[in-house]
Amino acid sequence: MHVEIPQISYASTAPDLSDSSRYDFFSRVVPSDTHQAQAMVDIVRALRWNYVSTLASEGSYGESGVEAFVHKSREDGGVCIAQSVKIPREPKTGEFDKIIRRLLETSNARAIIIFANEDDIRRVLEAARRANQTGHFFWMGSDSWGSKIAPVLHLEEVAEGAVTILPKRVSVRGFDRYFSSRTLDNNRRNIWFAEFWEDNFHCKLSRHALKKGSHVKKCTNRERIGQDSAYEQEGKVQFVIDAVYAMGHALHAMHRDLCPGRVGLCPRMDPVDGTQLLKYIRKVNFSGIVGNPVTFNENGDAPGRYDIYQYQLRNGSAEYKVIGSWTDHLHLRIERMHWPGSGQQLPRSICSLPCQPGERKKTVKGMPCCWHCEPCTGYQYQVDRYTCKTCPYDMRPTENRTGCRPIPIIKLEWDSPWAVLPLFLAVVGIAATLFVVVTFMRYNDTPIVKASGRELSYVLLAGIFLCYATTFLMIAEPDLGTCSLRRIFLGLGMSISYAALLTKTNRIYRIFEQGKRSVSAPRFISPASQLAITFSLISLQLLGICVWFVVDPSHSVVDFQDQRTLDPHFARGVLKCDISDLSLICLLGYSMLLMVTCTVYAIKTRGVPETFNEAKPIGFTMYTTCIVWLAFIPIFFGTSQSADKLYIQTTTLTVSVSLSASVSLGMLYMPKVYIILFHPEQNVPKRKRSLKAVVAAAAMSNKFTQKGNFRPNGEAKSELCENLEAPGHSESHHLLAAQHKPKSSVAHLPRGRPIFGPAGLQVHTPVGRGHS
Description:
The chain has 772 residues and is α/β, with parallel strands linked by helices. Among the domains are: 7-169 and 305-336, 3-Layer(aba) Sandwich (Rossmann fold), CATH 3.40.50; 359-406, GPCR, family 3, nine cysteines domain (Tumor Necrosis Factor Receptor, subunit A, domain 2); 417-555 and 582-630 and 658-679, Up-down Bundle (Rhopdopsin 7-helix transmembrane proteins); 685-764, no CATH class. Helix content is 43%, strand content 15%. The chain has 20 helices and 25 strands. It starts with 6 loop residues before the first strand and ends in an 8-residue tail after the last strand.
């Protein structure tokens, strides 16, 4: 049956009582635990705790309080519940020790939120002391703990640092005077006062109640409250008085309206209508016994006003110290707080330690306050607490990975160790080339220079010079001009060199192949023809370069891939010309084709008589050059993944080009320079013979060669250069004709004397016995 009798409570704080659909006639002068839960959540957040456990006495107060705290913590966010432990109504032996062990399972949750009665609070503290966990847990008690001495008596060290909350109150001094003056004689209204007297003074009023051997004394009735025993005003005295006053104010207002001018009840208030009285209760607004406003909201709840205490132990003295208040908002003076073992330093009650800069949080499913810290790896940086993001391609993360910074850009410097060897070879090579050119120009009209074929010799020397000069272009800082010159001259120097050598070897081959079949001279063997052929071959290289410029204009780039190391600290951007490995193959491919073709002709002319022995130095030159470039290929392309790719490939390429030029210069020109400078007697014609005699000597030499290199006794080495001067074309015709003449045609050649023909052709007649 629903009884419509309004009630005003001075101590009930359960959140369920705010449900007006169930407790519509219930009001209270104390705030709901919903406000208390909100205040406790605010305190937890202010102390920077995010991982706590809850402990509740079984029943409406404890369970509803914890439920309200959990709800508010989830609503506000930032606080996670590690465990929610319930204390049974009738705990078994060892139950509280079991509770402590369970709380220790989540040892990081050091803050324990307690909604429990005094007895349960005390037994929890005793169990913590037995488990030797003094100072490990930080307790936060609800108003059932408040500022009471009983729960912490003789447990001061375990309870030290506990934060408690209590509805805002002020001691009523009049009540202190009244209550401390109460004795057994003047008490008339409190039927439990005698029982209180015995418990407060630890005595018995009746002698028959004393047990033998007991240390309990008989009460003398001379004991005084506050003098012979500790006294502290109960925290809810103020609310008891305010509750009574609230009912009185409501009845007074109702009587004034329903029974104006009447003393006592009028018919309209006899009996009192509960519904009408409730309306007057909800409208009251007056100053309470200590001056605080007393009002009710639509659910009958009083506004939330709390004092916040901390139980502090200093110099052996323990006390509850006010450290703040809560009235819709928290006002906490953290500097007044004191913690066991750490003083004013805030203790931690967190699931996971804060992540370091450069680490992102990976939260545990269902526990937003717990996370694993994962470092941002590679080229990632920390965007926010939960995200790592890759830096732009031209940037790398900072040292602490909280941002990005530009990747340093490098290039091959002139003073780099990788540039020393190429530059040394280039400088020495250029000096040697210029020395040969000067020597040849000075002795331009001597037989040995004429015999070398002056036109193609200077073309070949120009190509060798460009090969050496390319080194400086490869090491210079890449820009539009440098990159354009690299495209032009990197392959051009070798093309010029190998085009000249190919023209020479091809001419030798055609002369002697033609001589086997006919006495007529082959076409295009004059110096002018040779130059035309050479420049035609070179023009193909230039044409390819021009096409390349049109299709893909030259420019420099910064390549961040070459040295994009696993560790971004060592990452570098490489400033280089936009020439890919494939483009380089195409650029050098034509030169390689000329080199291979020249090598083939060198092999074919290996059987040419020694009289025409410039074919052999060319052959040796090409064999050596092939070895150089065969070694170049695996080194150059095998280091494409190396962090030092820029340095290795540039050094390998420039050294290979310089070595190729050095081989040509050393084998083809240095012997001639040596003879010119140190053996000038061999560079002077001692006797001139007719062309017919020269051709006869060449034919005889060729004939000996075809007979298995048969040498007459005392035969000296013969030499004949294939490169003829201007009149040499007709002489070549006679040379070919001489190959078909009988052996007796050379019977009258004197022995042991060098012979120079009109075109600089040189042979040495054999010394010793003649050949029959």
